[in-house]
Design brief:
By secondary structure, the chain is of the alpha/beta class. 36% of the residues lie in helices and 15% in strands. It has a single domain, classed as Rossmann fold (3-Layer(aba) Sandwich). The strands form 2 sheets. A 4-stranded parallel β-sheet has the order 1-6-5-2, sandwiched between helices. A two-stranded antiparallel sheet has the order 3-4. Helix 1 packs across helix 9 and helix 3 packs across helix 5. The chain is globular and about 50 Å long. The structure holds zinc ion (ZN). The site of zinc ion has 7 residues, from helix 1.
């Protein structure tokens, strides 16, 4: 029996992520959104076209391997000297149970490995509807989070998609209440058209110089990191 492999992004026969979709991973996501409580926020992909396909496949298509790939690529946007611990905005226990995994945790584990920083569960999500499918006003309220342990000084907070920023803002609030001094945001995708960007020159620096240097450098960086994942970094606890 021959098992046919298909690209998780576009469905083309071949590797799990075809060269075209790999290119999409290195395309700039546009201006990072401004989120209350975050020192800065970076996103790998625009939530449209192939970028959207990849994130949807991770979220709803059981494409767990994409978590490693996207999380590793997301790490190229971050200067590891600015963070102590990587965490994620957890989905609710019921949704994690239905899906069998928490896609944001997969992204955070991969990003932590690539950055050489520990990845830890710091937050618990309170009950409430998922952000997906809610209207803009409902989304801006955001879910509730509570810290489950003291907050490390500088935290990289990972999520799958930033739309209004309400989820990241709520999670950052809980981290600050637990003692965290700086929270940086990192998402697989963003919908920047809906959220204003910081004026040029005022955005705090999370993105590394290398990743900002241009699409060619960024693409090589993404492809090198995806091709050579670090295996000895701390596991997620
Ligand atoms: Zn593809």
């Amino acid at each position: 029996m021959i098992l046919e492999r298909r690209c998780h992004g576009c469905g083309a026969a071949g590797p799990a992520v075809c060269p075209d979709c790999l290119d999409a991973l290195a395309a700039p996501a546009g201006p990072a959104p401004t989120v209350p409580g975050l020192r800065g926020c970076a996103s790998l992909l625009g939530f449209e076209g192939r970028g959207r396909d990849l994130v949807v496949a991770l979220k709803y298509g059981n494409a767990r391997g994409l978590g490693h790939l996207l999380g590793t690529a997301m790490a190229t946007l971050v200067d590891p000297s600015r963070i102590d611990v990587v965490t994620w905005a957890p989905t609710s226990a019921s949704r994690r149970g239905r899906r069998g995994y928490d896609q944001s945790r997969l992204l955070a584990v991969a990003a932590g490995r690539a950055l050489g920083r520990p990845c830890r569960l710091l937050l618990r999500r309170g009950p409430g509807p998922p952000q997906t499918g809610r209207n803009l006003a409902q989304r801006q309220v955001g879910p509730r989070f509570a810290a489950i342990r003291p907050g490390p000084a500088r935290v990289l907070l990972v999520d799958d998609v930033v739309t209004t920023g309400a989820t990241l803002a709520a999670a950052a609030h809980a981290l600050h209440q637990a003692g965290t001094e700086q929270v940086w945001g990192l998402t697989a995708a963003s919908t920047p058209a809906r959220v204003p960007a910081l004026p040029a020159g005022r955005a705090p620096r999370l993105v590394s110089d290398r990743a900002q240097a241009g699409s060619v450098t960024g693409r090589e960086s993404v492809q090198n990191r995806v091709a050579q994942p670090k295996r000895n970094a701390p596991e997620c606890r």
